[in-house]
Amino acid sequence: MKSQVEVDGIVTLTPEGEKLIKDSPLYNEGLRPTTLAEHHWTSYNFASLWIGMSICLPTFSMAAGLISLGMNWWQAIGTIILGNLIVLIPILLNSHAGTKFGIPYPVYARLWFGSKGTHIPSMARAIVGAGWFGINCWFGGAAIDTLLVASTPWEHVPAHLPIAFLVFWAFNVWIAYRGPEAIRKMEFWAAPTLVVMGLALLVWAVTSAGGWGPMLSAPSTISSTGEFFKIFFPSLTGAIAFWATLALNIPDFCRYAKSQRAQIIGQTTSLPTTMGLFSFIGVAVASATVVIYGEAIWDPAALLAKFSPFVIFIGTLGIILATLTTNVAANIVAPARAVENLSPRKLTFGMGAIITGIFSLLMQPWYLLDNFGNYIFLWLGTYGALLGPLDGIAIADYWLVRKKRIHLAELYQTNGRYSYKGGFNYAAIYAMLFGIAIPIICRFIPGLSFVWDNAWTFGLFLSMFAYTWLMRSDSSLVSETEYKQITQFGNARSVS
Fold first, then answer.
1. By C-alpha distance, which of 22, 21, 31 is closest to 347?
2. Which of 471, 470, 459, 464 is nearest to 402 (CA)?
3. Using one digit for the tens of pLDDT, what is the confidence trace for 331-359?
4. 276 and 77 in contact (C-beta within 8 Å)?
5. Which residues on adjacent β-strands are paired with residue 12?
6. DSSP 8-state code for residue 271
7. Distance separating alpha carbons of residues 23 and 54, to the nearest angstrom
8. How far apart are CA 334 and CA 244, in angstroms?
9. Are the beta carbons of 333 and 184 closer than 8 angstroms?
10. CB 466 within 8 A of CB 435
11. Distance from C-alpha of 229 to C-alpha of 285, rounded to nearest angstrom
C-alpha cells in the first residue's frame, strides 16, 4: 500500500496513510505532517525569520561581552561569524528532513530516540528554550523599566524592575499563546524595521565617537597567544551554541518550506550575515561608549538611559520588537511542541507556551546575565555540551544511517518500527551519553581541557560516529526497495 507520496522532493501522506495515523495517541493537528499546500514558505520568509531572530539583545551583548573579555573588535566579530558558519552546517542538514517530510522536531526525534525516548531530546531543547525566553524577557523588561524611569516617577515604585520584567514576560507569553503561524507574518515586516533601527544605532555610534578610528582603535588586552586561545575556544563554542538550539528544532519551521532551495538560500544568506552585522553594531556601539562616556556600556537598557525621553521611547519600541521576534520564533515553538508531544491528545501548543513561560522564571535569567562569565561560559558553554551530541545523532540518523528514507506513517504508531524496545532507542541514548561524558571527563584532565572548551564540536562528532556504528544494521531502517513500495512518486500536476 502506498502510504506516502513524494512530489518534487516533498513527501506527504496519501489518504490511506492519513487513515493509519488519525486515531493514534501520537497524533494531533500540531504534530501531524504538513500537507503539500502548507509548504508555502519562500526564501524571503526564511531570511526574515533569521533576521528577526538574529537582531536581538543577546546578540548585541555577546559581541560586546567578547570585548569585555579582552578581544579587540575584529577578533570578536571573527569569532562570532566563524561560529555561525559552523552551526549553519547542522542547521541546513536537519532542515532537509523537516522540508522533505513536513514533520516538527519532536516527531523527527522519534526517529532516533523512539516514540517515548523522543522526550529526552525534546525536553533538553525545551529547557534551553525556556532559559533563552527568560533572558530575552529580562532584556525587554529592563528597557521598559528604563523608559518609565526616564519619563515618569516610576523609580519610586518598589521593585519597579521586577514588575516591568513580569509585565513584559506576560505579554510575550500571550503573543506566543496565539500560535506559531503568526510568526511568518510578524517576521515579514519586523525584519526590515529592525535592520533600519540597527543601522541607525551604528550611525549614531560613528558620528558621536568622531569616526571609525577612535571607536575601533582599542587594542586587545590579551597578552599572549595562549591566553587568547583560552578565551577564543570557549567563546567560539558559545557562538556555536547560540544557535545550536535551532540546529535541532529547525524542522519546526522548514516543514513549511516551499522547496529545499527556498530554505537553503533563505537561511544561508541571512544567518551569518545578520549575526555578523548586528554583532559588529554591538561591538561598535560598546566601543563608542568608551570614547563618549569613558566606559564600555554593553547593556542596551543602560545605554538608552543616556538619551532623551523621545529617543528612549523609540529605542524601547525597537527592543520590544527585537525581543518579540526572537522569543516567539526561537524560544517558544520548540518548548511548546515538546510539551504538546508529552500527551498529544490532551495538550495543545498554547498550553505548552504557558508552561514554557512559567518554567523560564525558574531558570532565573537575572542570574545568568549577572556577568559574562555566567552568560558565555556557564550558560552557552554548558548547554552547547548537551546539544552537540544531539545534533550529531540527528545528522547521523537521517544522512548516514537512513539515507533520507523514512516511513512517515510509522512515526505516529506506538507499535511501529520507530518504537524500538519499549519506546526507547538505546543506541541513541548510549551515543548521547558518550558524546556528553568524554568532554566532561576531559575538563578535569590536565592538558585535555580544550576538549571541554570545544564541547559542542567534539560531542557532535563523538555521538555521530557512535550512533552510526550502533545503528549500522538496525531493523528500523527502510531499504530503497521498501521505500519505493510505500511511496508514490510524481509531480505537482500528477497528484493535484
1. 31
2. 471
3. 888 888 899 899 998 888 888 889 999 98
4. yes
5. 5
6. H
7. 39
8. 13
9. no
10. yes
11. 25
User: How far, in Å, are 28, 106, 198, 358, 383 from residue 336 at the CA level?
Assistant: 14, 10, 30, 12, 19
Q: Which three cell numbers stand for residue 152?
A: 515618569
Residues 6+ apart with CB under 8 A from 410: 416, 417, 418
Q: What is the pLDDT along the chain (496 residues), one digit of tens a residue?
A: 799 999 999 999 999 999 999 899 999 988 999 999 999 999 999 998 898 888 877 787 777 778 777 888 888 889 999 999 999 999 999 999 999 999 999 999 999 999 999 999 999 888 888 888 888 888 788 878 887 887 789 999 999 999 999 999 998 888 788 765 655 666 667 767 777 888 888 888 888 888 887 667 767 778 788 888 888 888 888 788 888 888 999 999 999 999 999 999 999 999 999 999 888 888 788 778 878 888 777 667 677 778 888 887 888 788 788 777 777 777 888 888 899 899 998 888 888 889 999 988 887 777 666 655 555 555 555 777 788 999 999 999 999 999 999 999 999 998 889 999 999 999 999 999 999 999 999 989 988 988 988 888 999 999 999 999 999 999 999 999 999 999 999 865 444 4
Residue with cell 530503497: 480
Strands 4-7 and 10-13: antiparallel
The pTM (predicted TM-score) of the whole model is 0.86
Q: Is the dihedral of CA 108, 430, 116, 455 positive or negative?
A: negative
For residue 487, give the amino acid letter.
T
Locate 443 and state its grid cell.
575538563
Q: Which residue has the cell 528577526?
A: 52
Describe the chain by its helix, strand, coil percentages, rounded to 5.
75, 5, 25
The answer to whether the CB of 139 falls within 8 A of the CB of 323 is: yes
Sole residue written with cell 511548546: 336
For cell 554548558, name the residue: 382
Report, at the CATH architecture level, how domain 4-495 is classified: Orthogonal Bundle (1.10)
Q: Residue 426 and residue 318: Cα distance in Å, rounded?
A: 47
| Burial class of residue 203 (count of CB atoms within 10 Å of its CB; 0-12, 13-18, 19+) | exposed
- CA 320 to chain CA mean position, Å: 19
Enter the C-alpha cell of residue 187: 517576521
Instruction: Give CA angle at 213 (209, 215), nearest 5°.
Output: 40
Radius of gyration of the chain (CA): 23
Output phi, psi for 4, to 5 deg. -145, 160
